[in-house]
Structure formats: structure tokens, C-alpha cells
Amino acid sequence: MKVGIDMGATTNGTAAMLDLEELLATRLLVQGNSGSGKSYLLRRLLEQSAPWVQQCIIDPEGDFVTLADVYGHVVVDAARTEAELTRIAARIRQHRVSVVVNLEGLDIDQQMKAAAAFLNGMFDADRDYWYPMLVVVDEAQLFAPAVGGEVSDEARKISLSAMTNLMCRGRKRGLAGVIATQRLAKLAKNVAAEASNFLMGRTFLDIDMARAADLLGMDRRQAEQFRDLQRGHFVALGPALSRRPLPVKIGKVETSARSSSPKLMPLPDSPVDAADLIFTPSAEEAKMIVRRPPPPPPPPRPIAEILEQVVKSKPEAEVPDEPLFPGLVEAEREELLDKVMTEIIDDPEAAYRTVAVLYQDFLVRCRIHRVPGEPLALPAFRRRLAVAQASGGDELIDDEKWQTALRLSESLTDDVQGVFLIVAQAAVKAAPCPSDATLARAYGSHSTSRARRLLTYFEERGLLVVRNDFKGMRVVAFPDMGCETAAGDPNGPDESADSAEAAE
């Protein structure tokens, strides 16, 4: 179905139409200096296309929340954990609800992490929910910077990765990226290069004009026209807009931003007692101010007393009393640690939480159960979590093959040990090879392709060998352990999730 979106008028007075179906397949880049009308253009596009396609707006300044009053968008306050934002994004794709992700009030690091978590949640949604969706990112240079700035490397990497996935791989998942930026020079090239439609507004810097002219196929002399564009005027090019550069004036919008351009207004008459108004607190302020006199300085100490304290030997630390039965205390501690770890693993949401979040939950539960001794350090917790996720069971504790699997897993990073041990456990028990969905859950992801890449990674390190039988079933062999799994369907359901639902 072809749907034309009226973006305004061309120079010859005809309507400037945008092919919405073509836009979903080819993406859009909007560029213009501050005050050129970028947000106004995005608002026109969102209002005109709201009845036809699901929308998601990444809004760093909270300007687009007014769409909710007229068009029914749900405003998502980004002041949440990354796990919460990821789950909300997955439900948004499932129920096809248009949303505005309000990042106002967060610092730039938090904005980048929140936007990345939300974009990744939509990107990793199940294939059944890959409906067409318009994803608008205002001030895209903040989330896909060309070079590192004052933000942390971690925030920049995850945000740039999410934006790259949106623009490079989002089309097959139904995600059509529409990005707006003040300066093309500040936007990562691999993100900008994926757009096939362009709306270029007013800009003054030579480097930005040159890049805009290159994208529109214009020579450097024609690039001077970008300096003369008025507010709300853009040059359009692309399969969804025009095959040749076309000047466009954006039409009117129904909603307005909460913030607007400053307007000049006369100053009030200066009162005679202006200095008193500034320097004298009001009655309300006076109630809030609690004036406390500064404490008197301590009396000077004699030099002899100071020297005596310096040369005085430090008292020895008291040695804690040894328990009468240290073996029983350690056994009780291990039993309580196993109990706490079991509670965490039994939580169906635990597989999709970060290790840092699980570790904080673990420490709280240890205090609740009064686990004696020092709490586990983070590396020791990660190791115990990986072993617990594999659910080896008591019958495997003394099994030589299982002990070999535990030694082999120590050569892997903490985040993939659990996946390796789950496959190794199936081999020790001669059980069917776990499905991709089961391995993806153990890795904390909904993406089955990541699970397959992990098996390839293990095979490249020489830890296992993967083969398929004539029926397409997968068998994983462990040369160092001398065992292999039974044939299992790689496309089967998540067995752990099914068992949890059956238990409920």
C-alpha cells in the first residue's frame, strides 16, 4: 500500500510528498544548524504519519511529549534501569504502541546508555513482532558521535553500536531510522552513510556544507545555497522524496514543543530599591536559612605532645577469636550460599539481568539469610553463578568428566562460562543438545544467532566439535572429556522457560 505524506510545498507551489513505504525501506537523514527547523520538520513527519505506522521517538530534550495529548503516544520516562527499558521496548514491539522516550533530566552518559538499551530492546525483539516502525532520533550526533568527547568510552561504544544496528541492520527487522543532527561532521560516517533520503537545512560551516553537497550530488559552488536557507526550508533528495535536489518548505504542525525559540520583550521598569531586592532574602528564604555560628578553633597543642604521639607505637590489632568448630561454620556458610544462589537462579527474570544487578541482589539476600564470613567478591560470584546456571546437580559433583568441564570453563570469560557448562552438562548426562533459545537465555539475550556464534567461538578454541546429523539435529562432542550430547533440535523451544511455566 502506497501512502503519501504531505511535508509542505515546493518552490513551484506543488505539494512536497514523501512516500512512507519507500521511507521505511531507505531511511532518512535530516541536517541543519540550531534554529533551522529540524524538530519542526520531524514533528510534521510524525503528525502526518501517525495514523499509518507505529512510531518511537528518542527525545533528549522532552520536546515531543506533547504528541501524547493529540496522537496517543505513550511517554516513557527513561529514568529507569537498563533492564527495565529493554523489557519495555520488547513489549512495545509486541503490542505496536507508539512511544516517546523522554531522556530529559539525565546527563549525557545516562542518555546514551538509556537510548542504547531501548534501541537494543526493539532490535532484539522476537521475529513474530517485526512490524514496520518509524524510529526517530533527534540530536543524533549525541548518540552516534564521530569522535570521543567528554563521555565515557563504555557509553559511547554501546550507544554507537545501537545506532549502527538501527541504521545498518534495522530494515530487515522493520525498523526505519530517521535521524536528525545539527552537524554532519559530528555524526559517525557509518551511521549517516546508511540513509538514502536527505533533507538538508541551513548550515554555515564549510565542512558541513561540503558534506551536505556531496550527499546530494551537488558541486561545491552550489553548496553556498545552504547558508541562504530560511527557517523551515530544506533541500530534499532521495527515492522517497525526489530524484533531483528539490527545495521544500515544511508545512504547519498541530502540536508544539514545550520549549520554543526566545522572543524579545521589553525589560520592566527598574525599581529604586533594586539592590535591596537582590541582596535581601525574602521571608520564605529566611525560614530556609539556618545560620549557625562557626565553631571556635581548637586550642593549639604543645609541640612535645604532638611529637610524643607521632613516635608512639601503633597498637596491635585485636586478633578475632577462632571458632571452636571452623569446619562446621564453613559448611554452614556454603549451604547458605547455595541456598541464596538457588533463589537467584529460580527467578525467571534473572537470565536477562546484568551481572552487576544480580551481584547486588546476591549481597542483599546474603544479609537477609545472615551468611557468616566476608561476602563473595565479584569474580568469585561470577564463577559460582556460571556453575549454578548450568544446574549440574549433586550427582555430578564427583563425576570426573564434569570436573574436567569445570577446568575447561576457567579458560573462558565470565559471561560465556554458563553457556559452555550447560552444553557440557548435557554431554556428561548424554542428554539432547540444548536449543539455540536455551543457550540465548543462558547468555542473557533473546537473539538465537548470538547463541550459534558462541558455539562457533568455543569450537574455534578447540573446546568442542559441532556436527549435524542427517535429520538436521545438532550433536556437540567434547574431545577432552570423551563424551558428546545426544542429538537435539537447534530450533527447539527454550526448555528452561517451558519447565518454569510448568512449575507455575
From TrEMBL:
**For the region Disordered, what residue ranges are annotated?**
485-504
Residue stretches of biased makeup (Acidic residues) = 495-504
Domain of life, per lineage: Bacteria
Where the record annotates domain Helicase HerA central, the positions are: 12-77
Membrane-crossing ranges are none
Q: Could you identify this protein by its name? A: Helicase HerA central domain-containing protein
